[in-house]
Amino acid sequence: MDWADKALRRLEEITKARGFSNLLEEYLRPAMEAETVDPRGLVVDDAEKGVKVVIKDVRVIREGGRPRVVVEYEVNGVTKSFYFTWGVRKGGIVNAGVRLDEEKAAVLAALTGYQTIRGKRGTVTLYAKHLFALAKYKGVGWGLLRWYAEVMRE
């Protein structure tokens, strides 16, 4: 994908030169970082809650035209998983609802970089900013970004 890297770099130059750097951060940065990080083996440690988790896999499965993110992790030698499916609600707002406990919240906070998720319980709504944060992971990025581009085009 050398051509894609060149194209993204050229777009970066143009947006900076024309004063549209906010677009660069919102749209181009996720594409430039897409699938650059392998999440397998990532250790999530929340000493305060006594939770230590190892990420086993993160992947996207298309389900009915919508991307479902499946997260597998191991805690105390037991493999567990959870998932959430992205959709678009009225007004074109991209979101996904995910039911969390302390373990899942710690994992999702580590994957997205949004520490406000840590310690949450119950159903939490994720938005486009979380989708973009997940795009850096191998097995997730291009599937999410492609779907996002498709729904935003409609």
Structural overview:
With 154 residues, the chain is of the alpha+beta class. 39% of the residues lie in helices and 34% in strands. The chain has helices at residues 2-17, 21-33, 102-112, 128-134, 141-153, and strands at residues 43-46, 51-63, 66-75, 78-85, 87-89, 93-100, 122-127. The strands form two sheets. A four-stranded antiparallel beta sheet has the order 1-2-3-4. A three-stranded antiparallel beta sheet has the order 5-6-7. The two termini are 27 Å apart. The relative contact order is 0.16. The model has no long low-confidence stretch (mean pLDDT 87).
List keywords for this structure.
alpha+beta, 39% helix, 154 residues, four-stranded antiparallel beta sheet, three-stranded antiparallel beta sheet
Tell me the number of strands.
7
Percentage of residues in helical conformation:
25-40%
Largest beta sheet, briefly?
A: 4 strands, antiparallel
What is the CA-based Rg, rounded? Answer: 16 Å
Number of helices: 5
Average pLDDT = 87
Order of helices and strands: HHEEEEEEHEHH
Could you say which overall geometry the principal axes of the C-alpha atoms support?
A: globular
**Amount of beta strand:** 25-35%
Which regions have little confidence, pLDDT < 50, spanning 5+ residues? none
Task: Give the terminus-to-terminus CA distance.
Answer: 27 Å
Structural class: alpha+beta
Strand order, largest beta sheet:
1-2-3-4
